[in-house]
Amino acid sequence: MPPPKDVVKIAIQMVGAIPQLIELQQTKPLASVLKDVCDAWSLPNAERYALQYADGRQTYITESNRRDIKNGSILRLTTSPDQEAEQLYIGIQSKNVDVKTDSLKKLASLSQDVTFAQEFISRNGLKQIYSIVEEGNDTGEILTHTLKAFTELMEHDFVSWENLSTVFIRKIVSYVNMNAVDASIQQLSLSILENMVPTSRLLFELVKKEVTLDRLLTHLQATNAQLQLKAMALLIALLLSATDTERRDMMDYLREKNIRQFIHKNIIHSSEPLGDEMAHYLYVLQSVSLNLCEHRMKTSMDPYSQEQRDLLQSLRQTAFESESEASTGNFSTERRRSLCAKEFRKLGFMNNSNPAEDLRRAPPGLLALDNMVYFSKNTPNAYSRFVLENSSREDKHECPFARSSIQLTLILCEILHVGEPCSETAQAFYPMFFGQDHFFEELFCICIQLVNKTWKEMRATQEDFDKVMQVVREQITRILALKPTSLELFKTRVNGMNYSEILKLRQMERLHQEETLAVPVLELREKLKPELLELIRQQRLLHLCEGTLFRKISSRRRQDKLWYCRLSPNHKVLHYGDVEEGVQSPPIESLLEKIPVADMKMLLVGKECPHTKEKSSGKQNKDVLELAFSIVHDVEEYCLNFIAPNRYEFCLWTDGLNVLLGKEMTSERTQTDLDVLLSMELKLRLLDLENISIPDKPPPIPKPPSNLNFCYDFSQAEQ
């Protein structure tokens, strides 16, 4: 008979003593439990002791977390958090270097526990940490442990970052700015500053002033990958906390220093594989840079702005300069105005008498004008060829440059998510973005020429404008999905995907759809589904057995602890535990926490998850909600909370957990995988029927013959 819910069977260890096997009653006060355990080992002063997990993070057991104890857990009797905090508080002030070092090392380890951290901070322990750093007498190992302990203590949010003294902050800054400092100290210092920047405007301004962009660029060029990562993290924190004007100035300075080319060469194409954290920072840097276009994108043209009107006139003058100069000299004002209107019409403006009206729509607003001017100035030959080539065509067959440019700018803004907030988890950046300054404008230059090329291939007229732009969007989207490494490669590939290629792809997709809609084929699909769904289930469970690295995301910042979770080969236990950065696939034995599959009750996703409800009351990040899921186990209060690294992992894990719970797989990935497998299986089954039309109804079965005399009688033949 299973034990009652309020009773768990556990083992308790103590150094130099025989372990105790007890039945822990969860309703019994923890002080009474400790008294019984100490009495069994004849230990006085039970209030000086506490229980903590023997494995894993060795968390202290308190009244608030005791319900997390599972059957079979191994606990250890140890010094209570208040006693430990008192001893370490004294130890870190010792004049003996060895005692001080050991105390700080232990402090850095124990500070991960919230109960201990509370006790240590309540003794004004942070003041001692501040003094060690501010006095600056200690370096090397002592300083490393001090900064590590400080980081862990601040992680619990008991103390505001704004309480830090200017002296302390400047000392941390000095470790970042000095050359002759141990790399581990610089990494911790960069991490502290990264955490500090988003908390207040005052701290942001202080760090921005003290840590120059040049210094961060120096750290980015370091060979130490972790130092490089921490420097990038601080740079991103500064960019995200800056005002629009500050952000633009910072990005302009970074452009002058060729940061994109450096990232493209030394980080993206480094011999070392790109980690998830660095991929996220590159995505944010790309997003921040593209969002600098947002202001122009959302600003309509002002017909009374002389600067904007000059830009508009420059388009006409560049295209028709010699022609205009030769013919307008002796013309009246009215005649010149008429000629200008004619030239603007040739440029493809719909309102040729007042072309500014075409640019009143926002988005794309002035960004479209900027792109046209950039194209005309930086590739004048291609610009003139585009305009003059279409001027010589019949009116209804000419490709309108201005109208196409305005629509293309809008399409590029939508594809590249210009003006959208950064995701907390996304890692999808375009490598070619970092290979080119003025990326958006250069991409426009390639794509506007693609518009003209596609227009000619489609033999389009003005009525076909929307169709042409739809094809161009498809061409750009399909090639961007291949993640070309440079704009030159993008240009080659996108020009290779001509209109006939798009038609072939569409026809294949349409034929495939038509094939799969025939009644007999639909019946065959239904018969194949169960077998293929079972195959998908096995694949999901196999993925869970391989395991995934998850990142805990706090309300204050993205960067946090890493942990790994995987399913046992017999599909009976989920193993999980914290891991260090850089660990790819830890062995199952090193994951000390576990949940029996039999104890799993249900799966929660999105807003239903407790860890999404616990987040601060600010705006909820949509991406985190889309990647969050939780396993409810034992009774409903206990949850193991996940935030998947990407949507693919979210789908595979939620499907796999649903399989373990005996439920249907519900993710969109299941339907995608099922469609792919069904398509492959159907093509193999129907291979012999190629070019044979499949009737909607099966042919009628012929009537039986009137007699069976045509059958051969074998018995007579034997006689």
Please work out how many helical segments DSSP would assign. 30
Level of helix content? 40-55%
Our measurement of the CA-to-CA distance between the termini, rounded to an integer number of angstroms, reads 76 Å
Instruction: Compute the number of strand runs.
Output: 11
Task: Bin the strand percentage.
Answer: 5-15%
For the record, the count of structural domains works out to 4
The biggest sheet amounts to: 4 strands, mixed
Strand order of the largest sheet: 2-1-4-3
Please, what is the oligomeric state?
A: single chain
**Chain-averaged pLDDT:** 86
Return Rg in Å: 34 Å
Main structural class: alpha+beta
Which overall shape is indicated by the principal axes computed on the Cα atoms?
flat
Uncertain segments are: 616-620
Keywords: Apoptosis, Phagocytosis, SH3-binding
GO molecular function: SH3 domain binding
Protein name: ELMO3 protein
Organism: Malurus elegans (Red-winged fairywren)
